């Protein structure tokens, strides 16, 4: 059998193509990941600082913030948790989530400690984690349309409004 008679080998599925169905560009995906890592670091440091008190609500908020940091690291940067056996499995499952689901998860996780104990430490510590959720939420809205399609839609709506107006004027006459 010659090399021309052999069938082409099947191409391996591209992991970037499978995750590209959410409409995020590569740079925006990296921006969200970097924001998640920085948000995790800010949650961890602020949570640790929040635990150095005698107020039980501050301690609870600090522990929750450190849990938020762990979840952010686990979902966005599993290489930071390389000694945890299930880190890659959790990261793979988190990558399958839709952007709006990640947005709801991250914003909810960041809002809870602030509601529990409203201090500057909890507010600033959770701000970047909340911003990560906002970034994922913005990506869930989709791409911005081009000016030509907006102009066509506007023109069609204008025509329909004129037709309704002329139809109501003829009905009155």
UniProtKB/TrEMBL annotation:
User: For this UniProt entry, what's an example GO CC term?
Assistant: endomembrane system
Taxonomically, which superkingdom? Answer: Eukaryota
Subcellular location(s) per record? Endomembrane system
* Region (Disordered) location: 1-20
Report the InterPro entries cross-referenced here. TVP18/Ca-channel_flower (IPR019365)
Keywords on record = Membrane, Transmembrane, Transmembrane helix
Protein topology in the membrane: Multi-pass membrane protein
Kindly list the residue ranges recorded as spanning the membrane. Answer: 30-49, 61-84, 105-136
What biological-process terms (Gene Ontology) are attached? vesicle-mediated transport
Q: What is its main location?
A: membrane
Q: Where is the composition biased (Low complexity)?
A: 9-20
Q: Which family does it belong to?
A: Belongs to the calcium channel flower family.
What is the name of this protein? FLOWR protein
Source organism? Halcyon senegalensis
Name the encoding gene, please: Cacfd1
């Amino acid at each position: 059998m010659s090399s021309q008679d052999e069938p082409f080998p099947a191409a391996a599925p591209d992991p970037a193509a499978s995750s590209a169905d959410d409409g995020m560009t590569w740079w925006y995906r990296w921006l969200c990941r970097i924001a998640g890592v920085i948000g995790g670091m800010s949650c961890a440091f602020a949570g640790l600082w929040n635990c150095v008190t005698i107020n039980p609500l501050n301690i609870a908020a600090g522990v929750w913030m450190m849990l938020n940091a762990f979840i952010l690291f686990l979902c966005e940067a599993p290489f930071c948790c390389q000694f945890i056996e299930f880190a890659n499995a959790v990261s793979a499952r988190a990558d399958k989530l839709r952007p709006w689901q990640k947005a709801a998860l991250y914003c909810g996780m960041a809002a809870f400690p602030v509601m529990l104990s409203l201090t500057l430490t909890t507010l600033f510590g959770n701000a970047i984690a909340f911003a990560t959720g906002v970034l994922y939420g913005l990506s869930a809205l989709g791409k911005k349309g081009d000016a030509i399609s907006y102009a066509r839609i506007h023109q069609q709506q204008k025509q329909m409004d004129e037709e309704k107006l002329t139809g109501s004027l003829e009905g009155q006459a």
